[in-house]
Design brief:
about 250 residues; alpha/beta; six-stranded mixed sheet; four-stranded antiparallel sheet
Length: about 250
Amino acid sequence: MSILEVKDIRKSFGKLPVLKGVSFTLEKGEVLVIIGSSGSGKTTLLRCLNFLEKPDSGTFYFNGEEFYSPEKTYSDAQLREKGLHFGLVFQQFNLFPQYSVLDNITLAPDLRDPANKAQHKETAYRLLEKIGLSDRADAYPCQLSGGQQQRVAIARALAMEPHILCFDEPTSALDPELTGEVLKVIRSLKNSDSTMIVVTHEMAFARDVADKVIFMADGVIDEAGTPEEIFSNPRSPRLKAFLSRVE
């Protein structure tokens, strides 16, 4: 049974259709990579999954049960609870500059469960060790490189123990020499059987880490398959043209 099924998701902004009927499934422990040109709908899809945007129509299923449909009414508390199933790592880090690294990681868990702050701090230190920043717990975001900030953002998302971790172009704001350290962390998460959806423009990384690849174009899934199928034997003319430009 799939952990997540997305069925016919559509989203427009005003009169501009951005998602025109997107459907896919995601298995537990699978890494789904989404590629495509700017404006193809990749980020909007992630934002819909994380309830930062409301789809106009379609349905999400979680572990085989209907999870969300925009035709139904949900309270703010219900939406917040549903959103906890997903973690999102943004392009631009979005760390709180006034808080230390440790506090950035523990803030959301402490707000959700204030009775277990000591446990949250212990989890944060464990995550910092995992991402190679155990010595920077007391540092502030301005004292970190871009790559270090993005690694902290990953730890912050993991601290909420989401079922599915989403990355929106996690290296696009980084200099090339800092990109590798972030991709190394994501690779390590794959080895720990995390379930992930990764939007990326790093084709070599996509080929290496993905179990399944989706190519989006003009608001639809133009082609989907294994990394071998997508990168070595593309069928769609639009995918062939895209790969010729980026590889």
